[in-house]
Amino acid sequence: TGVPVICIDGPTASGKGTVAAKVAQALGYHLLDSGSIYRATGLAARQAGLAIGAEHAEAIADLARTMALRFDAGRVLLAGVDVSDAIRTEQAGMDASLVSALPQVRTAVVALQLGFRTLPGLVADGRDMGTVIFPAAPLKVYLTASAACRAERRRQQLLARGINAKIADLRADLEARDARDMNRSVAPLKSAQDALLLDNSELTIEQAVAQVLAWWQQRQ
Ligand code: C5P
């Protein structure tokens, strides 16, 4: 298509969201936070009173296809309501992981994701950006960090919002979510064959961003 795409995939709380946003900002590219689509779908299912499971897969996929989801200046709007905070809770993350394991839901949100690929370019973060959605992307990064690091970062993020969570609980939650994301039958979380691995356990956000930008430079 001639539109450059940088994919940043990896497990929960690996720093993908922050790194992707900063890389997009540095390059003046669009940003696709694909996880927020699954989070919003989970929220829409709850609001509709649908239990999140295979028995409601078609109904939830319909919701995903028809929900009025808008991204506006860093905020996420569902049917005109700002749900940016509501979709960021731990519960919303688990719900997202459950809806995202339903093949019908994944199919329903493909077109929405492809629509983000517009000039001058796109940075896409998620689990399957490089493996499924943008397989021809010229740069794919698989961003990881140790489970201990990721749990600690999540704890800090929550603390910043005034929520005091136990590190052991957070780690158990994120490991459960990763296990489901890696073991599902459709679009499981895994590194694309041609992805570059970046472990940022010992890196600052700025260092991780600089590495991705350096790889992008080399591609030009
Ligand atoms: O990245 P984030 O934590 O917001 O994603 C929430 C959940 O959505 C993930 O745990 C995963 O199950 C799902 N997801 C996915 N594919 C993506 C992005 C997110 O399955 N591309």
Strand content: 15-25%
Shape: globular
Give the N-terminus to C-terminus distance in angstroms: 16 Å
Q: How many distinct helices?
A: 10
Average pLDDT level: 96
Q: Major sheet, described briefly?
A: 5 strands, parallel
Q: Helix fraction?
A: 40-55%
Quaternary state, please?
Answer: single chain
Tell me the number of strands: 8
Enumerate the distinct ligands: cytidine-5'-monophosphate
Summary keywords:
single chain; alpha/beta; 10 helices; 50% helix; binds cytidine-5'-monophosphate; Multifunctional fusion protein
Written account of the structure:
- Helix content is 50%, strand content 15%.
- The protein contains 10 helices and 8 strands.
- Helix 2 (34-47) packs across helix 3 (57-66), helix 2 (34-47) crosses helix 4 (90-100) and helix 4 packs parallel to helix 9.
- Bound molecules: cytidine-5'-monophosphate.
- ATP binds at residues 10-18.
Ordered list of secondary-structure elements with their pairings:
Elements: E1 5-9, H1 16-27, E2 30-33, H2 34-47, H3 57-66, E3 69-72, E4 75-78, E5 81-82, H4 90-100, H5 103-108, H6 110-114, E6 122-126, H7 129-133, E7 139-144, H8 147-160, H9 167-183, E8 196-199, H10 205-219
Parallel strand pairs: 1-6, 1-7, 2-6, 7-8
Antiparallel strand pairs: 3-4, 4-5
Helix pairs in contact: 1-10, 2-3, 2-4, 4-9, 8-9
The structure holds cytidine-5'-monophosphate.
Binding site for ATP: 10-18
Protein name: Multifunctional fusion protein
Function: Catalyzes the transfer of the enolpyruvyl moiety of phosphoenolpyruvate (PEP) to the 5-hydroxyl of shikimate-3-phosphate (S3P) to produce enolpyruvyl shikimate-3-phosphate and inorganic phosphate.
